[in-house]
Amino acid sequence: TMKYLEIFVGFFCALLMFVAVGVNFTNVVARYVFLNPFGWVEELLVYINIWMVFLGAGIIALRDQHLKMDILRSLFPKILDRPIDFIIITMTAFVCGFVVWISYNFVTRVYTMGQKSIILDVPMYIPHLAILAGFSLMTVAALYHLVKIFRKDKTSASSMASPADAHSTGNLQP
User: Fold this and answer.
1) Which of 105, 131, 139, 170 has the fewest C-beta atoms under 10 angstroms from its C-beta?
2) SS3 state at 102
3) Which of 92, 101, 75 is nearest to 149 (CA)?
């Protein structure tokens, strides 16, 4: 299920990190030992970082570990947790889905223009695909968490509050 997707994307992020560290180390050696650094390394590292950020955001969304503003949740009775979660996750799905749509249109436009990067001569749709991939993952994650709410699963997204919040009385205390 989603666990396999999370593992696959996590493996890909780890591979990107390994490549980034290797390329950066090689460039440090080339710069300080041979006094001849590679000019393309910084551009490559920027693209790798972009991919890691957006894929990492997708992993965090799949794990339901994004930062949450849950101070308002404590103002409402526990009985409203599920409806509040539904509203929040639905809004998240719509916003992420909208970004996917905008990103898809932008990526296809860049692809048809044939724009390439300055140093590496990489087609520019490839770095821009990171936004599409990351927000697609976040949209899938939001829809997955919505399904979990409807299934009333014990591990559903309705338990979005931290374990400490699960034992709160609903009152704000200093």
Assistant:
1) 105
2) helix
3) 92
Are the C-beta atoms of residues 11 and 67 closer than 8 Å to each other? no
- 81: which 2 tokens? 């947790």
The separation between CA 28 and the C-alpha centre of its own chain, rounded to angstroms, equals 30
Nearest Cα neighbor of 128 from 107, 97, 158, 153 is 107
pTM of structure:
0.80
Contacts of 23 (CB under 8 A, 6+ apart): 41, 44, 45
Structure token digits, residue 94: 């719509």
Distance CA 45, CA 134 (A): 18
Q: Which amino acid is at 112?
A: T
Question: Around 143, how many Cα atoms within 13 Å sit in the side-chain half-sphere?
Answer: 10
Structure tokens at 85: 């979660």
The tokens of 47 are what?
A: 């693209």
Of the candidates 81, 43, 56, the residue with the CA atom closest to the CA atom of residue 6: 56
For residue 114, what pLDDT band results from cuts at 50, 70 and 90? very high
Percent of residues in the chain assigned helix, strand, coil, to nearest 5: 75, 0, 25
